[in-house]
Amino acid sequence: MKVDVRTETVIAVPCERVAAYAADPSHAPLWYVNISSAEWQTPPPVGLGSRIAFVARFLGRRLAYTYEITTYEPGRRLVMRTSQGPFPMETTYQWEPYGQTGDHTRMTLRNRGEPSGFATLGAPFMAAAMRRAQSKDLARLKALLEQRDRPGLSG
User: Fold this and answer.
1) What is the tens place of the pLDDT at every residue in 97-120?
2) What is the dihedral of CA 24, 3, 49, 10, to 10 degrees?
3) N or C terminus: which one in the chain shows less Cβ crowding within 10 Å?
4) Which region, left, alpha or beta, applies to residue 119 given φ > 0 means left and ψ of -120 to 50 means alpha?
5) What pLDDT is stored for residue 63 in this prediction?
6) How high is the pLDDT of residue 117?
7) What fold characterizes domain 3-149?
8) What's the rounded Cα separation, in Å, for the pair 92 and 88?
């Protein structure tokens, strides 16, 4: 059974700023609920072929995996994939201007993959847990960026 979870939010910050922040893997531990570290395996900045090692906790387990950037359209779209472990994943970020003045951003976060072996039994439960985590992740990103973008604040 395939798992395909897509969530989105609108952030009251211009698209180029949201995309620049979210596309930098060094920021992932600040806005992803489950990610505790991100370490560049290739020199920054992000680009095609960049590799980043992440450590996360999901469903009570420690996960270590390396993503490779397979698509990068600055300010529009980023796709990264891992083929490691029992649950190979593809994560996609998509950004688009939103609102009449374009000063907001609609960000979509999508994770999909096909568990193998024993992991296939828990796929429906895993999808629900991923949906909850992704909603929290985007809420954290929204709060962080909107707070940083308010006049008089810096970060």
Assistant:
1) 999 898 999 999 999 988 766 555
2) -30
3) C
4) alpha
5) 86
6) 60
7) Alpha-D-Glucose-1,6-Bisphosphate; Chain A, domain 4 (3.30.530)
8) 14
Residue pLDDT, tens place only, 55-84: 998 778 888 999 999 999 999 999 999 977
Q: Which amino acid is at 6?
A: R
Q: Give the pair of three-digit tokens for residue 37.
A: 């570290």
- Taking every pair of C-alpha atoms in the chain, what is the biggest distance, in angstroms? 52
Instruction: Say if residues 79 and 69 touch (Cβ distance below 8 Å).
Output: yes
- The structure tokens listed for 45 are 């900045």
Sheet (strand 104-113) strand order: 3-11, 104-113, 89-98, 77-82, 61-73, 51-58, 35-40
Q: For residue 73, what are its two tokens?
A: 């359209």
